[in-house]
Amino acid sequence: MLAAEAMRLAAIEALCPTACKVSGANWPTLAEHRVYDSAAILAEELADGEPYTACLSLYTEDVRIERRGDGATSSIGFPTAVLVINVELATSSTDEDGILQVLPLVEDDPQARLVLGALCAQVRKQLVYAPAGSIFREIAGSVEDLRIETFTLPQFDIRWMRNTMRLTCRIKDDKFTDEDGMPEPMLSLFNRLPEGSYAKGKLIQLQSAFAATTRTPLEGIRFSTSGDLPSGPADGPIGAV
What integer pLDDT is reported at residue 89 of this predicted model? Predict the structure, then answer.
């Protein structure tokens, strides 16, 4: 469902505004530019000389469309999608083969735990409250449920500095037409995104994937009041009343 992908791309623009990337300042969250689309942070992207690097990774999960009622067609429904945001204080570690790996910081620093909580609060504020989040809220009309899950191994009493935010959102449905090009609401998102933005660059590559729909035109309808179908051209629709 393309509207669910539009929700995620809109959230990326809200959390990592193109204007901030251009200026290098006024970042809305502690993650700054480290906001990743369907991917995790790489080792070379960690901040040099810092005990940890705040970062965000966004994913789309569990898309559902419930039919509006027994009389509704299958194409009309109430869509929901889950926006998953991994909020992490990342660090690096070398494994037994000497390969550098990225791992969340082990939870042994109360101040770092406050930083992680503050980052989650910044994400929520930016998406559901701040003006910059309006681009997200135009697609996600409401956040029906928000859950924040910690990353732990309770059997070993190990906790890491990673929270997973799961926002179950009531979103707009895809609106298809016979014209070529992306359906709504992705088309409106594309038109609103600033030039040079990450999301717009991705969508430019997607435009040609949606061709126009060709339909066979209706040439006419013929009726008979006798109950017998009149003869007609083989290619013409015939009906009886």
Answer: 97
